[in-house]
Structures
1.
Amino acid sequence: QRNLLVRHLEHERRLAALGEMSAVLAHEIRNPLASLKGHAQLLARALDGDAARAAKAELVVREAVRLQDLANDLLDFAGSNGPDLRDTDPAELLRESAEVVAASGIDLRVATSPPSWRLDATRMRQALVNVLRNAVQASAGGAHVEASAFLERDRLVFEVRDHGPGIAPGDEERIFEPFHTRKLRGTGLGLPIARRAVEQQSGTIAARNLPGGGACFRITMART
């Protein structure tokens, strides 16, 4: 138990240091990046009659937007303010999160969700959006994602099940580590941000493969 505690504290210390570094980097690149994107957009409009050159300017805009997303993810990961816990409707929170990710393709099951739970709605929405987006991206061929909110042993549980290839063996914990990703594009911060948002509210998040294929992400929140 002592060794586990030491490893946990060391892990927390490293995450805190990474968060501080991420915040500094994100702040430093945001302003010049906004200027770069703005001028590239003006250039693309000015080159409207030259399709080849306009396409290159649009490429600069797209890549600048991608870097802005990375900077925003870094700031989200670095966020260290305490949670703002308020009475929240978990079912409505899950519906709102699903609408952000996809207009369709997510089947909601909230009939047994408790009517109210003390949550930081902003951070929990961020966590749910990231987990749902990950599930939708993993589910190929238009397969629907199943998302549910329910009460279990006096705890609020959110579950998200996808129909993708599942989690690579040994990656059940690594997928929550910053910058770990097997995607060709992506920051590798979506799930770490989700974990940080959940743990800041004294909750837990875990992932496992399902017997019939796909993966299940489970967020568990105790009463506060």
2.
Amino acid sequence: MELKKLGETGLESDKLIKYNGEPEVGSTIDKKDLIAVINEMEKFNDERYNHHETIKKFEDIFSKRVGNQYAVSVSSCAVGIDMVLKYLSLNNADEVLSCAINFHGTHLSIINTGAKLVLVEANQDLNIDVDDLARKITPNTKAIVVTHMNGVSCDMKRIRELIKGTDIKIIEDAARSLGSMYHDSAVGNNSWACVYSFQYKKMITTLGEGGMIVTNDRQLLTALQRYRSFGLGENWGTNYKMTSVQAAMGLSQLKRLDEFVNNRRILARYRTERIRQSLEEFVCPKDDSTYYNSYYLYTILVPSVWGKSYRDELILRLNDIGIKCVIANPPTYQKNEFIRMNCDTSRTVLSEKLGDRIICLPIHPSMTTIENEFLVEAFIKNAKFIYKKYFGGK
């Protein structure tokens, strides 16, 4: 395929541009979704209408899908993390550990508790490095927020073994990993609590915003239900509720989750095969019998000798032909001054180096085979150009 002759591929440049590295809408909306929303809205005219029924149905079906007893729908994933952390009643003598490579909202939630945010190095999957985690656990550690980055599960078995016999709570942040699996088990049922996102960009959406908390802890369930609805007359609370119309959309979208994930995996398998054949020093996303990747993002690490400058040049070259990539994510304190001023002051040097190598190629369940092939060939061609220009490669 001649990359400079975009028209000959049957593609339009704005078609490729629409698939950013993190598309604005991560799923697709079909007529069944629209009908579900309209049907729910039409119920408003019935004086017997009970909006709690649709919300409860979404929670029940979702909890079964991911293998937990209980689910609590909320207005966003970030709010869900806030609520779970609030239950722990943390103070400034407590520590909460979290991977440095992360979405900044997760770290803001930890800082909001008043506890000390302790950053842990990332591994090559951009997930928390369990060896570094072991070094940073202290008697003051109250919780570990484990973020499954970009569709790949963390090594939950080792993390659970690490805290066995302690009172440390594991909170999973699966905002980007709905549909992923670990040892044939859905991501989200390997801990005390797990929080998911239904924001626009995520694997499924509930009309742009929304989230879900799952747990097997009945006491936590009761507390969360109170927090999200003004305390229910028992304790403090505010309004963190999801609407019934959002829940109707969630129920409809959840039916197609397997389709969305399967489409992403087909695209990703082709990419990985081609890139590994042509660019041996590049690190493609993990996906094997233990780690079933849902590919929220298709995340590649450029060679360590490239570093940030050559990675950035590759991104610019791809951008020039309509392929927009993102970097998701460098250590949060590098981009967020508030986090830098409110976390453990030690740098995570290894994570910074990994952050300089990240490039996320556009991926979306509605992307066609032709689009995917064009993207991969463009990536390989431009990467080889940089190799030849700066490193004397072929």
3.
Amino acid sequence: RVRHPETRWRINMLVRDVADMIESHAPRSAGVPGDQLGLLAGDPDAPLAGVVTCWSPTLQVLDLAADRGANLVISHEPLTWEVCGRDPEAGLEWYQERHPTAKAPNQRRLALIAARGLSVYRYHSNWDWAPRFGMVDMLARLMELGEQAAGPRVAPVYRIGPTTVGELLRRARSVLQTGPLRVVGDPARTVTRVAICHGGFGQMFTFPEVARDAGAELALFGEMLDYTIRYCVEIDLAAIELGHYRSEHPGMQGMADFLRQRIAQEIPVECLPSHEPWRLL
């Protein structure tokens, strides 16, 4: 059989060997300083039985990964829920919040991991901008945006042929297999410069100005707040909200593709959906 030049054709791999593969393509140093990256739970020296990539390591994903025979789960989002209701540096506390170790979802996830012999790694900001297989490049390819023409890495801008907001909306719904999406601006508006602001960048009130300053006329956001939407309106930036999960799941599919090219075929690699746990009624 023809071998990929970087493929490690051996079955007796360890969990940490997979981490080495990923970090050779997307080193931790490429991530945002202070971001949580690497091993979160489990044994890095365990023999590798199978790999699951996912956007969020929910209880359902972790359980299904173990059912499939995998012992390594690689997620994009955190394994445990942290404290978010206070800012120690500012001395600001909105409500009394349980310590992370006392939060029921954290206890359940960690207990399941221990009981089922899983190891969990997280690759976040380093995988956002990983070449070809990461969040941004995978989304840009699915949306047929071509090559980046301008903008910083947090809001890359792509120059496309004249296209209406409505046409880009229909394309997004088709390739990401979504239902209705929130749209900011006139669907009939024609745009030629599109920014990708994936994941949670739309949770920051004034982030749209980064895309607008880079020349974007429309931004594809992951998750947007009401404040962010109103900011888009006031700076005349059209926007389509894809959903946090929908905008980043392709990047975890990309990670699975990346690993399949480098791991012996006898070791299964699968990307499991984290799903959207709500419905529109």
4.
Amino acid sequence: MTEPCDLTAVEARRLIGRKRLSPIELVESCIARTEMVNPTVNAVVAECYDRARDEARTATEALVGGDELGPLHGLPFGVKDLNDTEGLVTTFGSPLYRDNVPEKDELLVAKLRRAGGIVLGKTATPEFGAGGNTTVNSVHGYTRNPFDPSRACGGSSGGSGVALACGMMPLCTGSDSGGSLRKPATFNGVAAIRPTTGLVPSDKRGVGFTNFSVQGPMARTAEDCALMLSVLAGDDIEDPLSFNVRRDDYRALPEIDLSTVRVAVSVDFGWAPVENGIRETFEARLAKFQSSFKSCDRFDPPLDSALDVFWILRGVQFLASHLERYRNHRDQIGENIVANVEAGLTMKPEDIGWANAEHTRLYRQFQKMFADYDVLITPGQPITPTAVEQRNVTHVDNVPMENYMHASALTSSLTLMGNPCVSTPCGFDHTGMPFGLQICGPMHGDSYTLGVARALERVFEGDPDLARPIPDLEKIRATDE
């Protein structure tokens, strides 16, 4: 099935610039696709089609009139339901905000609009983004994986991952604390980047002096992520960790010769839980493309205490963000919010002090790896998608998990480091679900890391075992039956 909505963002923008595709055609195609499959997968939880059509007409008039066009001119995009959108309901997945309609866009959305992007709707998220395995909340219900609607789509940017995989829109926003960009990208066979901390500024983070939560692009290709990143990157006075960059660095990714790239490969850091089936799939896929690199060495970065550090510091973040809600509305908030807040309340000051100091030590050790290697490659996720009803992963190959974030150690450990991490699809796993890679690059090496991902995409596209998987939409299309 090939329609305008199936085009990559870069391809669609190129055709718009050459007047071979109108924003009206693209928006209508995206709306039609969404109406076709969204009743089954529940990725888009609020829509603004009338406004999108009006903006598409205005964008088309500007195109015909020869006006200067922004980098995203006429491109529809989805907004994760954690981002404020002017005039469009923003629930954060919480019944406390069921009828919340913001009066203005937050910074991330405003930047995308100013660049010519057109908001098509809001994409599903777990309540306040607290949920990594499946995307579900009491306001909108479950979001389902388009490759098998009985299985999970990952979280917390699950709606964005599903919408992209289905061709509902070419770009989506996402955010990531422990893997919330990377897991849904992997589970749905699309691309995402968790940028270097501070590269994408936020005016909404309640706790600004931390590298835990970042916002970033989700798309179908590394090049599309770069296009979106070129609009989002840059400093802003509202974000204390933001820094200035040259946006053109992201619109034109470097051409990476993989034969010059030194790769460190780790399946589990030496300790993180990873399903045996995923280990085997990773080894089989790696065997097909590792000869493309200058070198490809087995190396487990020193992250042995990362699991404890992450859980303690996550508890601190949840106390800062949700303690008032916990005290005043405990009966209306979900189990993951409660678990994190209560974990934070039990922590001792000496534990928090240790975690902060250990965080710094881990960071310094980890960065030394890039003196010998250009990128680190791991499996994109440690598990295959579970049943959609399984909110949290309690066991990995019969090994019990200590808490609901334990099974996300492969991504949460790298959250602590703050380095750019790109998720790129790489065929199917042992159960027939999308498989992907996590590519971690040096600090501030976002453009380089995306360039490596794009070079790998070119290698993968010629091999059916490695190419980006595409869901069979005819099997999940909505019918009147």
